[in-house]
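Predict the 3D structure for this chain.
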Amino acid sequence: MKTVHQGASISVWCATSPMLNAMGGVYWEDCDMAALRTDDPGQPGVKPWAADTELAERLWRILEQMTGMALP
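Done. Predicted structure below.
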């Protein structure tokens, strides 16, 4: 279990660090970039479906159809 300050530290760092200016779409946990996890679902890390670009594009199209808006 983390304290409030420990839990907030990664969000503050990600929001303010110039090291991340050119990085988008990455997941950070425990002050480090999370690894892709395909093994134990109980372990920390990014699940494969969260990094699936084809699935993301499909979801984007569905949302555009549902909202009737062309999203950027």
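The longest strand covers residues 28-29.
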